[in-house]
Amino acid sequence: MKKLSTGILALALLSTLALANGLNLNSLGSRALAMGGAFVGLADDFSAVFWNPAGLANFKARTVGFYGTDIIPSSTYKVTVPPPYGPGQVVDATTKTKHYLGGMAAYIHPINENLVAGIGVYTPSGLGSDWPAEKLAFVSGNSTTIEWSSKVGLITIAPSLAYKVNDMLSIGASVNINYGMFDLSMYAGKTILPAPYGTEFDLGQYSESETGWGLGATVGVLFKPHPMFSIGATFRTASAVKFSGNATMSNLALLQQPSSSEMNRTVTWPEWVAVGAAFYPVENLILTADVQYTHWKIIDIISTDYTDTIWSALMTASGKDKMPMHWNNATQIRFGAEYKASEALAFRAGYYFDPSPAPDKTMNILLPNYDFNVLTLGVGYNMNGLRIDLGFEYLMGKERIIDFVKTYNSAQNPYYDPEYESAMPGAYKMKIFVPNISVSYKF
To answer: Which pLDDT band holds residue 19 (cuts at 50, 70, 90)?
Structure first.
């Protein structure tokens, strides 16, 4: 059993891939997104449920809002095995074109002059990847049929309450009820069977699908000491989502072993703290800036429990039931602007820098992480309480290169680094296109 378990090398990725955290959606609401997601100090439309619930206190009319987004990632992955270890380039792959839909719906209801209630349903996480099987044969035991794909999402239901203390100060809070989803397909690897077999065995396709629930909260404050200036702050608590589902490994049945097992895994979405300001330097112009901090370091070691005793023994013996992540805290810097050309028409633009929390030693192709430079644009039209906002976000990922020699475990390789055991070597590039639309109405 122990000899069999040590051969499941590809399963080192499983805990890494369970994390959707490095792929949080960076902006919700077309107006906020078009202003670079620098919205914590402004928070004056229905997306305040997400950005800063204190902003809801300034609503004087009932408001309903809808936001939809289409996230279209494009990634490339190249692997070169240099001499004397291999023949040179062995992988040159580009992801299939996929559309990952997300959105938000919110209703805001003033109770009296100072108290406002609201509720939002939104997707703070949602992305994935899908690679052509024939292009990844080198990392799939020379098979051209092994699927490599992932899809992850989080849906939050957030009842909110905001109170206007006075003309300058507002406070607000939301309860975040989180529902997570995760699907994964990848190569399970090969192993040397124990006696009496003594031969190499291909474990085939590995797949898992799971869902789970978690609970958290958001609190915010908005302070406007002058008509030309406002400042806001938001704190979102960590939320531990308890996933459960099923995992399968296609070829285990050939060894008279169970090919599937139920599984449980807890993934924590970390704390998020943001401070933002909005400035009105001239009539019809708003400038915004945010600093947003995420406590990714809470993701250190992820544990997975397999219900089946055989699977549990395999994973425990190989150490794949626990995976060190070593994620780092990250700070985003965001800027935005809105210019009202008229009472009905507004133009927006923004920029932000989003650093990756994941180090090189946990990089992989299914949920990769990049340092992103992001440009945003948008336009809005407002008429008689009806507002239509269009936004576009372009994320440019900085290339990441994971040295093959560091990951190649061989007695003849003095440069092998065991900390890179769960990394997939190669050159990674990624860009993401995000068109979106919001519609809201005050009545």
So the answer is: very low
Under DSSP, is residue 219 helix (H, G, I), strand (E, B) or coil? strand
pLDDT band at 198 (very low <50, low <70, confident <90, very high): low
Using CA atoms, how far apart are residues 301 and 16, in angstroms rounded to an integer?
9
Whether the predicted model's global pTM rises above the 0.70 cut = yes
Q: Is the backbone of residue 46 left (phi > 0), alpha (psi -120 to 50) or beta?
A: alpha
- Rounded to whole angstroms, the maximal C-alpha distance in the chain is 83
Q: Which candidate, 360, 367, 369, 370, places its Cα nearest to that of 422?
A: 360
What is the residue whose two structure tokens read 């992932």? 150
pLDDT in tens, 88-139: 999 999 999 988 889 999 999 999 999 999 999 999 887 788 999 999 999 9
- 239-273 exposure pattern, b = at least 16 Cβ within 10 A, e = fewer: bebebebebbbbbbeeeeeebbbebebbbbbbbbe
The tokens of 240 are what?
């531990």
85 CB-near residues (< 8 Å, 6+ apart): 404, 405, 408, 410, 413
Q: What does DSSP say about strands 426-442 and 63-81: parallel, antiparallel, or unpaired?
A: antiparallel
Residue 198 tokens, joined: 């003594």
Residue 52: pLDDT above 70? yes
Neighbours of 316 (CB within 10 A): 15
**Distance in angstroms (rounded) separating the CA atoms of residues 260 and 252:** 8
Q: What are phi and psi of 134, to 5 degrees?
A: -65, -25
Strand extents, DSSP E, 111-168? 115-131, 148-164
Q: Mind listing the pLDDT tens digit for each residue in 298-334?
A: 877 788 899 999 888 877 876 777 777 778 899 999 9
Please choose, from the candidates 155, 157, 156, 137, the residue with its C-alpha nearest in 3D space to the C-alpha of residue 147.
137
d(CA 347, CA 396): 22
Look up the CATH architecture of domain 2-442.
Answer: Beta Barrel (2.40)
Cis peptide bond N-terminal to 418, omega within 30:
no
Least confident of 185-199, 322-336, 415-429: 185-199
**Tokens at 192, concatenated:** 């040397």
Q: Is 342 helix (H, G, I), strand (E, B) or coil?
A: coil
* Tokens linked to 68: 């939809």
Write the CA distances from 307 to 10, 75, 90, 246, 349, integer angstroms: 20, 35, 37, 9, 50
Report CA-CA distances (Å) from 13 to 174, 186, 302: 35, 9, 11
Q: Where are the domains of the chain?
A: 2-442
Residue 376 near residue 392, CB atoms below 8 Å:
yes
